[in-house]
Amino acid sequence: MKIIPLSEGAFTIDSSKKFIPFDPEKDDLQQRAIGSLLVEIQPFIIITSKEILLLDTGLGFRKDGTLQIHQLLLQHGIGSGEVTKVLMSHLHKDHSGAISYKDDSGIRQLSFPNAAYYVQEQELNFALEKNSPSYLKEEVEILKNNPQTVLLNGSGKIDNNISYELTGAHSPYHQVFWIKENDETIFFGGDDAPQLNQMKKRYIAKYDFNGRKCMELRQEWWEKGEQEKWTFLFYHDVKYPTFAFS
After folding, report:
1. 3-state secondary structure of 101
2. Pairing of strands 20-21, 149-152
3. What does the alpha-carbon distance between residue 199 and residue 177 come to, in Å, rounded to a whole number?
4. What CATH class is the domain 2-244?
């Protein structure tokens, strides 16, 4: 399988839930609001022998009128219509911002017109009902009753190569994914396992719905990943998008 990180850049975020671009060579984290976190925004493309999978969709920012994620895909020779499945860990705005966009007529369209979108049904309902700055209802409501949406409930398998687990750790209905082909296993933990350094120490984050569960799951996945030689994908890691045990 081929892994392509789609880096949208580094950002700081504080309690306001606003993502502010950060240039590590020019900007000073200490000059940002107290408690600001430095994160990468980094969806992933996985190319298997049969499919092109997208893991989360990024912020949905535009550059010169075009979705940034579409531009990043084209840099790798991939058109938005070639993506076959979009796997959503959860629907916080930094992960779901490019689920949809408004076309030149002001009509909202799915950003990946030929893809099936896989999302937890309770997560979608929660995003649409919740009055929270973490969610952008206008971006995700297109998934409701859409023929391209596949609503998942709990844990299970999408096909023989993709399995998912409802964790309820970072957010109440967060899910993680394993993609397997031949002897290779790729693990995407979304915001349950967002950065490499969090895998290596006992760390409980206040911003998680269930921080202790996140910590325990990270330890469990790290140990199993070492035993089974997984490749880990880190959505928010500024330095290390992937880590592979070998």
Report:
1. strand
2. unpaired
3. 16
4. alpha beta
Q: Are 58 and 8 in contact (CB under 8 A)?
A: yes
Cα–Cα distances in angstroms (integers) from residue 46 to residues 17, 154, 162, in the given order? 29, 23, 12
Stretches where the chain sits below pLDDT 70 are: 34-35
Burial-class residue 26 by CB neighbours within 10 Å (0-12, 13-18, 19+): exposed
What is the Cα–Cα distance from 166 to 119, expressed in whole angstroms? 10
Are 193 and 218 in contact by the 8 Å Cβ rule? The answer is yes
Specify burial of residue 67 (Cβ count, 10 A radius: 0-12, 13-18, 19+). buried
- Which three-class secondary structure state does DSSP give residue 163? strand
pLDDT of residue 35: 66
CB 245 within 8 A of CB 199: no
Query: What is the structure's pLDDT at 110?
Result: 97
Which pair of structure tokens corresponds to residue 238? 């500024």
Residues composing the chain: 246
8: which 2 tokens? 């949208």
DSSP structural state of residue 115: P
Please give the pLDDT value at position 204.
Answer: 87
State residue 75's pLDDT score. 96
Cα–Cα distance measured from residue 204 to residue 220, given in angstroms and rounded to the nearest whole number: 15
CA 66 to CA 61: how far, in whole Å?
Answer: 8
Model's pTM, two decimal places? 0.93
- Residue 1: burial class (beta carbons within 10 Å; 0-12, 13-18, 19+): middle
